[in-house]
Design brief:
The protein is of the alpha/beta class. About 60% of the residues lie in helices and about 10% in strands. Among the domains are: about 220 residues, ABC transporter transmembrane region fold; about 160 residues, Rossmann fold (3-Layer(aba) Sandwich). The strands form 3 sheets. Strands 6-9-10-3-11-12 form a 6-stranded mixed beta sheet, with helices on both faces. It has a 4-stranded antiparallel beta sheet with strand order 2-1-4-5, covered by helices on one side. A two-stranded antiparallel sheet has the order 7-8. This is Thiol reductant ABC exporter subunit CydC.
């Protein structure tokens, strides 16, 4: 039950609706019991008396109990469902608040299909927590205890039989099936996650699978995953039916036992025969209400496992979060002896790196593929927390700063940039919602996309744009934001060299007093950079200006000579 503490806390935020729902549920349950009990009493009384007054009163009571049961059931449904929907709202908000700071790095641990399965499916599964897990045992316990207390005035023996029946149907049988369910529910959820992963990969990789003639093989794998998930669901359904059958059988046997014990007490003179039918009908009505407990094991384990899977995501360590804002002055960034390795990996992606970025300077980070350049960028952006070392911005440790405030002051262009389904205008307005059409058009012209109308459609993930167009649109978005800290990771790698240099010149011209950090495998045009950091195997092996590095005739010089020989 510890796994559901957070869900229970969010549920009890609406304690007023939950309390009213429990109250109406009790009224509905006790009214149905009273209806059946008074029916049994009326039958017995009618056989023993001819007084019409008594019979009319009893008939009126029957109608009253029936009306009260229907009205209370409506109130129960109204308030319990309202509390459920509100709880789901609180759960989604709470979950996404905890997830948001982890989002940049969470794909390193979870695949997108599995994430989607958890974020959508598991959250939706928790809608059953109040209605099927928390609520039924509470209401049933109150109804049963009230019924047993009433029955004890007529026969202690029958009251004890009903108490034993309550323990069996409300506690013992559901507990046994919960133990059985715990062994299988995790497997079915894992199957659903696996199916979502394979379906996502199939959709995103359809073109490549078709090109390489592997579509049929992938379809067979997807069908196999679907069949396994369907079989798991079928077994779950059979298990739930078995629980319902056994619980109903126990309830029926208890009612028969009440009849047998009551008949014995009547024969022994310990119970007046007038009340036997009433007590039997009360027992039948009370145990009719245990039907939700048959489904309790399935919903309990479903809710518990869903809560565990959601908690696994938000329990992933993320960057440290503070509340302080950045100083209102040109910002200096210092990285000291920073080391970092990706989760589950022993090798260091960044190993003991120190880098100082002074306001208004231009820094290039170069090196062979896999040397740690992009990882270094992620550390500077505080997407990943450093395992060792210290990152400070504006003289303040990054742990004390609000992460969103950090990103708010940065113009960021990464290797992969996301574009949303919509238009050029909607994708540009993400950076600056207040920007006018004239500003957007001027920004597009600066990256040589002036032929793109703002109304032009952008498909999901920018599928109708070329690689170079995506990069230029991302740069336009950064230009429109207009901040003084620039972080560019291979921003023009898919653009021809002439256009790329023209874009760099425009960026440096417009942001001549800005701070630039550029990651590039292209060594051309680095003469304009204030410092060049050369990386290899996660370390900075050289740092200095272009002329300083060329004079050393060391690593950078060798890279430059190789580039010149290849493109000579």
């Amino acid at each position: 039950m510890n796994e559901l503490k957070h869900v229970l806390k969010l549920t009890l935020i609406e304690k007023k609706d939950v309390s009213i729902a429990i109250f109406f549920g009790f009224l509905a349950g006790i009214a149905s019991v009273a209806l059946m009990g008074s029916s049994g009493y009326l039958i017995s009384k009618a056989a023993l008396t001819s007084q019409m007054t008594t019979l009319v009163v009893m008939a009126a009571c029957l109608k009253l109990f029936g009306f009260a049961s229907a009205l209370s059931r409506y109130g129960e449904r109204l308030y319990s469902h309202r509390a459920t929907f509100t709880m789901l709202s609180h759960l989604r908000v709470s979950f996404f608040e905890r997830l948001t700071p982890l989002a940049p790095g969470i794909f390193g641990k979870y695949r997108s299909g599995d994430l989607l399965s958890r974020i959508v499916g598991d959250v939706e599964s928790l809608q059953n927590f109040l209605l099927r897990v928390f609520y039924p045992p509470v209401v049933l316990s109150i109804v049963f205890l009230s019924t047993i207390f009433f029955s004890s005035f007529f026969s202690i023996g029958i009251a004890l039989v009903m108490l034993i029946g309550m323990l069996l149907t409300v506690v013992i049988v559901p507990a046994l099936f919960s133990i059985r369910k715990r062994k299988t529910v995790g497997q079915v959820r894992a199957m659903r996650g696996s199916l979502a992963v394979e379906a996502t990969e199939f959709l995103y990789g359809f073109r490549d699978l078709k090109i390489h003639q592997q579509l049929g093989k992938k379809e067979q794998l997807l069908k196999k995953e679907a069949d396994q998930y369907n079989e798991g669901q079928r077994k779950e359904g059979l298990e739930e039916n078995l629980a319902q059958s056994i619980n109903s059988l126990v309830a029926l046997l208890v009612s028969f036992f009440v009849l047998g014990v009551g008949a014995y007490f009547v024969a022994a003179g310990e119970l007046e025969g007038l009340y036997l039918a009433m007590l039997v009908m009360i027992s039948i009505a009370a145990f009719e209400n245990v039907a939700p407990m048959a489904a309790f094991p399935a919903y309990f384990e479903e809710s518990r496992k869903a809560a565990v899977r959601l908690e696994e995501i938000v329990a992933v360590p993320g960057a440290a979060q503070g509340i302080e804002k950045l100083p209102d002055r040109p910002l200096e960034i210092n990285l000291k002896e920073a080391s970092f390795s990706y989760p589950g990996e022993t090798a260091l992606a960044v190993d003991g790196v120190s880098l100082q970025l002074k306001p208004g300077t231009k820094t290039a980070v170069v090196g062979p593929s896999g040397s740690g350049k992009s990882t270094l960028m992620q550390l500077l952006l505080n997407v990943f927390p450093v395992d060792q070392g210290q990152l400070s911005i504006g003289g303040k440790p990054v742990e004390t700063l609000d992460q969103e405030a950090i990103w708010q002051e940065m113009n960021i262009v990464l290797q992969e940039n996301h574009f949303f389904f919509g238009t050029i205008r909607s994708n540009l307005s993400i950076a600056n919602p207040a920007a006018s059409d004239e500003e957007m058009e001027r920004t597009l012209a600066q990256v040589q996309l002036e032929l793109f109308p703002l109304e032009m459609k952008v498909e999901e993930k920018g599928q109708n744009l070329s690689g170079g167009q995506k990069q230029r649109l991302a740069i336009a978005r950064a230009l429109l934001k207009g901040k003084s800290l620039w972080f560019l990771d291979e921003p023009v790698s898919s653009v021809d060299s002439v256009t790329g240099r023209a874009i760099y010149e425009e960026l440096f011209r417009q942001g001549h007093n800005d701070t630039f950090v550029v990651i590039s495998h292209d060594l051309v045009g680095l003469e304009k950079m204030d410092q060049i950091a050369v990386m290899e195997n996660g370390r900075i092996v050289e740092i200095g200006s272009y002329n300083e590095l060329m004079k050393k005739h060391s690593y950078f010089y060798q890279l430059k000579q190789i580039e010149n020989s290849v493109f000579a």
